[in-house]
Predict the structure.
Amino acid sequence: MSASALCAVMTCATAPSSSELQHFAWPVACNLGTTCFIQNYVDHDPTEKTLDFRCGHRTYDGHDGTDIRLPDLDFQRKGVEVVAAASGRVAHTRDGMDDVSVKVLGKAAIAGRECGNGTVVEHGNGWSTQYCHMAKGSLRVKPGDSVRSGQALGLVGLSGNTEFPHLHFTVRHDRTVVDPFAEAAAKGECNVGRSLWQSTLDPVSNYRPTEIINAGFADRAVTMDEIETGEIKQSPPSSHSAALVAYVRAIGLQAEDEQAIELRSPQGLVIAEYRAPKLPRDQAQYFIAAGRKRVGSVWPLGTYTATFILRRNAGEIERRSFQMEIAQ
């Protein structure tokens, strides 16, 4: 989410400019593509339209950072560290805001504090990094502290203007937002610019227009809230479950996308399937599920397989199969 409100009362970078580039470590202690995902990139489009660094639309209008999200709140509760992307000095911090979705609080309650709990680190030569939406009480640094690259600053949270647990990470040079995936790309440009990530990282080539962030099985109908909280993972099917349901949540979906999910028995027979209507508009996230009620005294023992398929522009762009075992 936008960090502009925090910068309105914080000097995010004051050192003189330099042609020397910074190179950044990954700012969250997670594995991109498995335990964390990029929800939004920097918006490169100067109009009301959107454009990410790969000419896609994994962003929203005016977005000035990279949103690194966790799969669900269960991951966030266990504690995921936010780390300094480069060595420097802590310039500003804020803590004390509750970890509550803005859907519950309302935007008026966090006006002027949209960044939530967070910090700004200055790196010299005009460079700074900003870290937003951190967990209440988790900040481990204070203004004036020196930090090294990779040092823990706090934990990923749900504070400020956010609906899901994530870190909003913004890079600035001489107070101007820089996309770490495409430094020097001008407004309106994409597929150009230089990566500012350390050479040992490869988040640029990891770009995907759409990603699956949750997939699993449950013993009852699934809701988005239960996926987000992680609660649904506490209800795995057993041989005596009243129902067997497979679900998938994806991010970065586009208008006209077609999704389907099917569930097969240990014998390979389709026992449930669902084909969603074409999406009427782009969707930041969306989930579908398919399932059926138990018809016998128990579910047959063995391996059940679910397959999710995503089609875009008449072509299949995503297929994911996952399994679960029902044992005695």
Q: What stands out?
A: The first helix runs from residue 4 to 8. Confidence is low (pLDDT under 50) at residues 1-19.
